[in-house]
Specification:
- The chain is an alpha+beta fold and about 650 residues long.
- It has a domain at about 375-625: Dipeptide-binding Protein, Domain 3 (Dipeptide-binding Protein, domain 3, Roll).
- The chain is globular and about 85 Å long.
- It starts with 13 loop residues before the first strand and ends with a strand.
- The relative contact order is 0.14.
- Residues about 1-20 have low confidence and may be disordered.
C-alpha cells in the first residue's frame, strides 16, 4: 500500500474513469472523463452543473404513508438544501430489505454494525488515504493549523426534524467535552490541544487549538469516527444545568447522583452506547439509521433515517436499505448462521480458522469472502504498573519481555491458527516509511534457549519443580484472563501459554468477558492484557499516536493505567512513569503537529518505534493479518476492501448507505 501522502488543507481532483452521462445512471463504474473534487461523491452545485439542470429528489417508499398522513414532510423538505450526492459503486440501487449482522453483546464487537450507519464531519474514502467531506460540506485551516472552520450543509436536520447547526458543534465542545462535571479530565485528543469552539454563523463553526493539530481530520475520519464531534443541543439541553436551572433537582428526584449522571444516560462519547438502552429511542441522530425499538438481550433493530442528508445520482434519498438488524450471539455460533444464509455482512472479530469452513460453504450460504488486511495479530501486554511489587518488577524489565517474546513459536501459530496467511513479527504499524524489516523482526524469532538465558539473567531461577521463582521465593504465577474479542480464538492463548510453560513460567489461562477484562484493566488488577495494535496503519498512527504508547488502547485503556492517571492528574494520583514513557508522550504530542512525509515527521516517527521496541510493551504475534470478510451475494454496490480495520471504521470507507439488495 502506498504511504500516506496528503497535503492538508488543499483540494485535489480525481479523474473517474467512465462514460459521459447520456441518460444512463451515473456510477463509479460507468462514468467517463468526469472530474470530481472528491472521490466518488459530489456537492449538489457541482452535480447540477454537470447535469445542466436541477436535481429532483425522490422519496423512499418506506416513508410514503407517513408523508401522506402528514407525519413527515416530503423528501424535498427533509433533505438539506445542499445534500451530498453519492456516486454509487456499480448501479443506482433499489429500496428495501434488512441488512443482517452479528456482534457478541453490547459494547463487545458492535463497532462494525455502527460503521454501517456512521455520519461524521469527515470520513476516509475507499482508498483508505484520502479524507473527504461528509456531514461537513467543507473545512478551512488557518496557516498555522491552530484553527479549523467547518462549513455545514444549509437545511441539514436531525432525525427528529430539528435543524442541525453550528450550535451543535459548539455545544458538544464547550458544554460537554470541556464541562468539568461531565468530564473531570478533558478527553483525548481535545484535552491535549487546549481546544475551544466558536460559532461564526448558523452553518459555520471553528475549533481553535493552543498548538497545531495537523492530524485532526485523520482522527475525525478514523479512530475518532466513533465519537461524533457534535451533539443535539435542542434535545440534550433539557438535562444540562447550564440551560435548565432545575436539571440537578430533577435528576436527584429520579434517583441520579446529579444532573451530569442523568445527562450521561442520553449522551455518551462512545456513540453506540447511546442506543444500548430504551432511552436511545429519544435521542436524535444524523446517522443513516435510527433505533427503531428498545434493545433486547438478543440484539437491536435500526430503521432508515427519513432526514438522512445524502442522495444518489438520480436524486434518490439514501440509504437504500431500510433496516439494520444486529443480533448478539456467541462466536461459536457465527459459522452456522453465516452458512445458513442468515448474515449479510460480517468481519469484526472473525477468526481466521473459520475461513476453510466458510469457503467450503459459500454456495450453500450464498455469500462471497474477501480477505483484506486488518493489521497485526493479537498483541500481549504485561502489566508494568502491577499492584504486586514482585510482578511489577518482573513485567517492567525489558529483558523479561524480550524473553517471553522469543519463547513464542510464531511460525507454528501462523501455520496452525492463521492458515500460513500472515507474517511472524512484532506489533508494529504496517505501512510506515520509518519502520524497517529489522524492526518487525526484533525479538520475534523463536529461541526458547535465549529466552531461558534471559530469565536466568534477571533472577527468575527455576525451582526443583521446574517453575521459576520471583524475588520473594514463590512460584511466579501469571494469570492470563483473556477476552475472545482480542485473541480471536481460545487456541491462541492456550498455545502461547504452553510455549511459556516450557521455559518455566506458571501461566494460568481463563476466558472472561470483554466487560470483565476492561474492568480489571481499569482497576490495575490484571497480569496480562490483549489488544489489536491500535494504530496498525500510517493514517491512524498519525491521527492518534497516543494509541501506540501507554495506555495503548483504541477505545479503552489497555495497560499502564497508573501512569496514565498520573499524567491526567498532573501527578496528583497514580504512579510516575519511567522516562521512556514520558519521552513517548512528549514525542506523540509533537508528531500530530507535523506534515506527513517530511524528514522531521519520519525522524520523530522513528523515535516512537525505537522506544516501543527497546521496552517491548506491546509483544506482537503476527503481521499482515487478513480479516475474513463475508458479504452476501444478494448485496450490490460492494467494492473490494483493501483494508478492513477498526482504525478506519470497518465498513465506513466503503459507503454502506449506497449498498442495496438485488
Amino acid at each position: 500500500m502506498k504511504h500516506l501522502s496528503v497535503l492538508l488543507g488543499c483540494c485535489f481532483f480525481l479523474l473517474i474513469s467512465a462514460t459521459h452521462l447520456t441518460g444512463a445512471p451515473l456510477t463509479v463504474k460507468t462514468a467517463t472523463g468526469l472530474k470530481t473534487k472528491h472521490r466518488n461523491q459530489m456537492e449538489l452545485t457541482e452535480f447540477e452543473k454537470y447535469l445542466g439542470r436541477d436535481m429532483v429528489a425522490k422519496e423512499n417508499p418506506l416513508f410514503a404513508e407517513r408523508v401522506d398522513k402528514g407525519i413527515l414532510p416530503g423528501v424535498g423538505e427533509r433533505l438539506p438544501k445542499e445534500p451530498l450526492v453519492v456516486i454509487p459503486e456499480t448501479a443506482v440501487g433499489t429500496y428495501g430489505g434488512t441488512l443482517r449482522g452479528l456482534a457478541l453483546s453490547y459494547e463487545s464487537g458492535t463497532s462494525e454494525i455502527l460503521s454501517w450507519r456512521q455520519a461524521n464531519l469527515v470520513r476516509f474514502s475507499s482508498d483508505n488515504r484520502t479524507i473527504v467531506p461528509n456531514v461537513a460540506k467543507s473545512w478551512k485551516w488557518s496557516k498555522d493549523y491552530t484553527r479549523i472552520t467547518f462549513s455545514l450543509r444549509a437545511g441539514h436536520r436531525w432525525s427528529d426534524g430539528a435543524p442541525f447547526t453550528a450550535d451543535d458543534l459548539v455545544f458538544y465542545m464547550e458544554d460537554i467535552i470541556l464541562n468539568k462535571e461531565i468530564h473531570e479530565k478533558t478527553p483525548s485528543p481535545w484535552g491535549d490541544f487546549g481546544v475551544k469552539a466558536e460559532k461564526i454563523d448558523e452553518t459555520r463553526a471553528a475549533f481553535i487549538f493552543e498548538r497545531p493539530y495537523t492530524a485532526l481530520l485523520f482522527y475525525l475520519g478514523g479512530n475518532g469516527s466513533y465519537y461524533d464531534a457534535f451533539a443535539p443541543k435542542h434535545f440534550l439541553k433539557q438535562f444540562h444545568i447550564k440551560y435548565n436551572p432545575d436539571a440537578d433537582k430533577e435528576a436527584r428526584a429520579l434517583g441520579f447522583e446529579n444532573w451530569a449522571a442523568r445527562f450521561r444516560i442520553y449522551w455518551n462519547r462512545w456513540k453506540d452506547a447511546i442506543v444500548n438502552k430504551a432511552t436511545g429511542l429519544e435521542v436524535p441522530t444524523l446517522e443513516s439509521h435510527i433505533l427503531k425499538q428498545a434493545p433486547t438481550p438478543e440484539g437491536r433493530l435500526f430503521e432508515a433515517n427519513p432526514y438522512y442528508f445524502k442522495v444518489d445520482t438520480q436524486g434518490n434519498q439514501l440509504p437504500y436499505i431500510n433496516y439494520h438488524q444486529e443480533r448478539f450471539l456467541k462466536k461459536k455460533d457465527w459459522g452456522n448462521e453465516i452458512i445458513a444464509g442468515r448474515v449479510d455482512q460480517k468481519s469484526q472479530n472473525m477468526p481466521l480458522d473459520i475461513y476453510p469452513l466458510l469457503k467450503d460453504n459459500q454456495t450453500r450460504g450464498n455469500y462471497s469472502i474477501q480477505l483484506p488486511i486488518t493489521g497485526t495479530g493479537p498483541a500481549i501486554f504485561f502489566n508494568k504498573t502491577h499492584k504486586d511489587p514482585v510482578k511489577k518488577a518482573v513485567f517492567a524489565n525489558p529483558k523479561f519481555n524480550f524473553a517471553v517474546s522469543l519463547a513464542i513459536n510464531r511460525s507454528e501459530l501462523n501455520k496452525t491458527l492463521f492458515l500460513s496467511l500472515c507474517t511472524p513479527q512484532q506489533a508494529l504499524p504496517q505501512n510506515l516509511p520509518f519502520t524497517t524489516e529489522a524492526d518487525k523482526q526484533f525479538m520475534a524469532g523463536y529461541s526458547p534457549e535465549k529466552a531461558e538465558a534471559l530469565l536466568d539473567e534477571i533472577g527468575l531461577k527455576k525451582g526443583p519443580d521446574g517453575y521459576r521463582r520471583g524475588s520473594d521465593g514463590k512460584i511466579l504465577t501469571i494469570n492470563w484472563e483473556y477476552s475472545l474479542q482480542y485473541v480471536w480464538s481460545d487456541e491462541l492463548p492456550r498455545r502461547i501459554a504452553e510455549d511459556w510453560n516450557a521455559i518455566g513460567l506458571d501461566i494460568r489461562i481463563k476466558e472472561i468477558s470483554t466487560k470483565e477484562a476492561r474492568a480489571k484493566q481499569l482497576a490495575n488488577e490484571n497480569d496480562i492484557s490483549n489488544e489489536w495494535v491500535s494504530a496498525p496503519f500510517e493514517p491512524t498512527l498519525f491521527a492518534s499516536p497516543i494509541t501506540f504508547m501507554p495506555p495503548y488502547g483504541t477505545a479503552y485503556p489497555v495497560t499502564g493505567i497508573a501512569w496514565w492517571e498520573w499524567k491526567q492528574s498532573k501527578g496528583a494520583i497514580g504512579e510516575e512513569p519511567p522516562q521512556w514513557v514520558k519521552d513517548l508522550w512528549e514525542i506523540g504530542e509533537e508528531f500530530v503537529t507535523l506534515v506527513p512525509g517530511s524528514d522531521w515527521y519520519n525522524a520523530v516517527g522513528r523515535q516512537i518505534i525505537r522506544l516501543n521496541l527497546e521496552n517491548l510493551s506491546a509483544i506482537g504475534t503476527l503481521g499482515e493479518v487478513p480479516l475474513v470478510t463475508v458479504v452476501s451475494n444478494r448485496l450490490s454496490n460492494i467494492p473490494q476492501w483493501e483494508i478492513n480495520n477498526y482504525g478506519y471504521g470497518y465498513a465506513y470507507p466503503y459507503r454502506p448507505d449506497q449498498w442495496y439488495f438485488k
